[in-house]
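Protocol step 4 of 6: structure prediction from sequence.
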Amino acid sequence: MAILGVEGFSALPQHCLQLCYGFFAFAISANLSRDLSPKNIGKYVPLPMAMAVPFLVGAYFAIDMCLGSLVVFAWHKLNSRKASLMVPAVASGLICGDGLWILPSSILALAKIHPPICMSFQATN
């Protein structure tokens, strides 16, 4: 944001503003089509705000939600009554636990401790 404030829109990548305009128009048209269409059709039109969540929080959250949905599906197949009672509490705990990991992760990053993972991308011949 600081670079954008100092250098202006010329600091953005090429065609970035055109893409922003296009996605803004798509969001408005999707919301209008959802609101103006009949209920039985409008419920299948995706909400742009819901589609924006992975861009705001990161891809890891989408993976967490996918795995959580699979667990909920399996839990409902095994014991639907118990799952209906416990799923909201378990999901809240998992989301909070995922957020709580940020604190130790930040401390490790400040101490310049890196995880023992080595990943490299090399060109193939």
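Step 5 (inspection) to follow. The helical segments are 2-7, 16-36, 39-42, 48-57, 59-78, 80-100, 102-110.
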